């Protein structure tokens, strides 16, 4: 066994203290810089407005401001969706994107149907496929009512799949 001299002893003590200081500063800094990118994003409910905007059994295209953050950047985007009120007061909201290839569709008052102009998919008021190549019904969005205000949880879904799958 070798003897340790005074210079070697202090060198090891200084290295140990430097290592502890490095860990004490490095671990919080690493967590501060990396953890926000690893967190699962929670989509916030977006306020649409008063329930008076929505008509009974007549879909209307509405807009909502969607706030999102990626790391340290925050941004607001305006998204549209279709919504109508059922006779029992339930509000139904649909994603504005056709489930076939992602085109935007429109409500036709004359036909009482949703029509996609890209490949002629046709959906009824409930969002069920009546005609065309759409592989599934229109994608519904979660809604909630607080007081007389409507909130929607806007989501985007993959097009062309037989099952609804969020992006």
Supply the helix-strand structural class.
Answer: alpha+beta
Largest sheet: 4 strands, antiparallel
What is the count of β-strands?
11
Identify the overall geometry: elongated
Number of helices: 1
Tell me the distance between the termini: 63 Å
Order of helices and strands: HEEEEEEEEEEE
The residue ranges in which pLDDT falls below 50 over 5 or more consecutive positions are: none
Widest beta sheet: strand line-up: 2-3-4-9
Amount of beta strand: 25-35%
Kindly provide the radius of gyration, computed on alpha-carbon positions and rounded to a whole number of angstroms: 27 Å
| Mean pLDDT level | 90
Q: What is the share of helical residues?
A: 10-25%
Describe this structure in words.
There is one protein chain. The protein is of the alpha+beta class and 167 residues long. 20% of the residues lie in helices and 32% in strands. It has one helix and eleven strands; from the N terminus they run αβββββββββββ. The protein has one helix at 6-38; strands at 46-50, 60-70, 73-85, 91-94, 106-108, 113-115, 122-123, 129-131, 140-141, 143-146, 149-152. The strands form three sheets. It has a four-stranded antiparallel sheet, with no helix packed on it. It has a four-stranded antiparallel sheet with strand order 5-6-7-8, with no helix packed on it. Strands 1-11-10 form a three-stranded antiparallel sheet, with no helix packed on it. Strand 7 and strand 8 form a beta hairpin. The longest helix is centred in the N-terminal third of the chain and has 33 residues, at 6-38. It is elongated. The chain starts with 5 loop residues before the first helix and ends in a 15-residue tail after the last strand. 16% of the residues are buried.
